[in-house]
């Protein structure tokens, strides 16, 4: 494993292509169609053989392609499984919706979060729900003209 410097910066879809040599990481060209997920942390370790990246301390994630921002104490990216496990006071924000928990797993291909709380606590999820659009009210119908004659027929 190679250790990156403090406040290291990774682009996760690219790091799987990293080549570890002489304790340094050389990042290859990003494949076409890939979108960057930026991860910042106090320390980061990457293993090119297993495709696992471990980030520790003040972890911050920004994934603009899916409008995701997250913070946690630790993050583990499993590049072969395309899964990110965030641990320790996790907060995720996506398009105004938020999720808090002790451990939150993000399944990249599914675009799905799985959240677990601390023991004897709960996960908190806040969702923005748009109010339904008010139906367009039709123009009021013109009232029928007044007729002094009865509208009822007599049965005689």
From TrEMBL:
UniProt name for this protein:
Organic solvent tolerance-like N-terminal domain-containing protein
InterPro entries cross-referenced by the UniProt entry: OstA-like_N
Highest taxon of the lineage: Bacteria
Q: Which UniProt keywords apply?
A: Signal
Which Pfam families does the record associate with it? Answer: LptD_N
Give the transmembrane region(s).
Answer: none
User: Where are the annotated segments for Disordered?
Assistant: 135-156
- Compositionally biased tracts (Low complexity): 147-156
Q: Which organism is it from?
A: Leptolyngbya boryana NIES-2135
Q: Where is the Organic solvent tolerance-like N-terminal domain?
A: 66-111
Range of residues in the leader sequence: 1-23
Q: Where is the composition biased (Pro residues)?
A: 135-146
């Amino acid at each position: 494993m190679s250790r990156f410097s403090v406040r290291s910066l990774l682009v996760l879809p690219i790091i799987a292509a990293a080549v570890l040599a002489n304790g340094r990481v050389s990042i290859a060209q990003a494949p076409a169609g890939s979108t960057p997920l930026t991860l910042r942390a106090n320390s980061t370790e990457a293993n090119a053989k297993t495709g696992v990246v471990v980030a520790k301390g003040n972890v911050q994630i920004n994934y603009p392609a899916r409008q995701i921002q997250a913070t946690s104490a630790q993050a583990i990216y499993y590049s072969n499984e395309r899964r990110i496990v965030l641990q320790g006071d996790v907060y995720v924000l996506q398009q105004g919706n938020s999720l808090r928990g002790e451990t939150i797993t993000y399944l990249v291909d599914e675009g799905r979060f799985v959240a677990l709380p601390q023991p004897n606590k709960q996960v908190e999820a806040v969702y923005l729900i748009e109010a339904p659009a008010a139906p367009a009210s039709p123009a009021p119908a013109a009232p029928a003209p007044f007729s002094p004659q009865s509208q009822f027929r007599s049965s005689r």
